[in-house]
């Protein structure tokens, strides 16, 4: 008797992770301005049962975020990382997706209290699959819109060569594409019709954006 099996990738989308849990919850909190306070976030993480909490007090523009790096290094397979809300963890949708994906690779769960998202449940896993698809869709729209804007500018008579000064539209598109680990700075510049030097000149925090593209800080230190 033959049986019909669901495609492996579809079934995987609903499998809760980590498969074997330690029941250990580790919290991470962050304030992005000097006027914000950590107490409310710390109280929420404590109430959620976090055994240990890491907290960054620097701006989210700081790509290092030392406490986040320490938090990721502290986590073991089977643990669950708990954050007060998604914006306290990722600085962009792509940044969030990249880091949660690497947690999954290490067998670590992820929970956001405010949004009630939990990758240790099938429903939470499915939501992040939707997030990833949405992020890719947004990137494609940005690229399409940028290309159409450049084509319109050429049609109005600005043709020949690369623009010496990047437009706000190009900079906005570049900033959204830079955290994508699948694209190099050169390929992004070529896609947007500018030189890599133009991106460096017009995006002061380009290196920080690139640092968030491949958040290797998720890796535990070698023994």
Topology:
Blueprint lengths: L7 H5 L12 E6 L8 H9 L4 E5 L9 H9 L5 E4 L2 H4 L3 H13 L3 E4 L4 E2 L3 H34 L12 H10 L7 H8 L3 H7 L3 H6 L12
Parallel strand pairs: 1-2, 1-3, 3-4
Antiparallel strand pairs: 4-5
How would you portray this structure in words?
This protein is α/β, with parallel strands linked by helices. The protein has 2 domains: 17-120, Rossmann fold (3-Layer(aba) Sandwich), CATH 3.40.50.1390; 131-211, no CATH class. The protein is 47% helix and 9% strand. It contains 10 helices and 5 strands, in the order H-E-H-E-H-E-H-H-E-E-H-H-H-H-H. The chain has helices at residues 8-12, 39-47, 66-74, 86-89, 93-105, 122-155, 168-177, 185-192, 196-202, 206-211; strands at residues 25-30, 52-56, 80-83, 109-112, 117-118. It has a 5-stranded mixed beta sheet, with helices on both faces. Helix 6 packs antiparallel against helix 7. The longest helix is centred in the middle third of the chain and has 34 residues, at 122-155. It is elongated, with a radius of gyration of 20 Å. The model is unreliable at 1-11, 159-164 and 214-223 (pLDDT under 50).
């Amino acid at each position: 008797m033959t049986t019909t099996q669901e495609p492996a990738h579809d079934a995987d989308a609903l499998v809760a992770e980590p498969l074997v849990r330690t029941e250990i919850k580790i919290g991470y909190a962050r304030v992005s301005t000097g006027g914000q306070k950590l107490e409310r976030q710390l109280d929420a993480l404590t109430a959620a049962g976090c055994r240990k909490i890491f907290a960054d007090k620097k701006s989210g523009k700081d790509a290092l975020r030392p406490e986040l790096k320490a938090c990721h290094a502290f986590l073991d397979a089977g643990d669950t990382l708990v954050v007060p809300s998604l914006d306290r963890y990722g600085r962009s949708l792509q940044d969030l997706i990249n880091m949660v994906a690497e947690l999954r690779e290490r067998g670590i769960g992820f929970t956001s209290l405010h949004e009630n998202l939990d990758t240790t449940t099938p429903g939470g896993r499915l939501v992040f699959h939707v997030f990833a698809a949405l992020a890719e869709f947004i990137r494609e729209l940005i690229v399409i819109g940028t290309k159409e804007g450049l084509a319109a500018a050429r049609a109005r008579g600005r043709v020949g060569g690369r623009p010496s000064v990047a437009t706000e539209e190009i900079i906005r598109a570049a900033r959204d594409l830079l955290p994508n680990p699948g694209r190099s700075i050169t390929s992004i510049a070529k896609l947007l019709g500018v030189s890599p030097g133009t991106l460096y000149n017009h995006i002061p925090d380009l290196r920080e954006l690139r640092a968030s593209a491949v958040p290797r800080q998720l890796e535990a230190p070698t023994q």
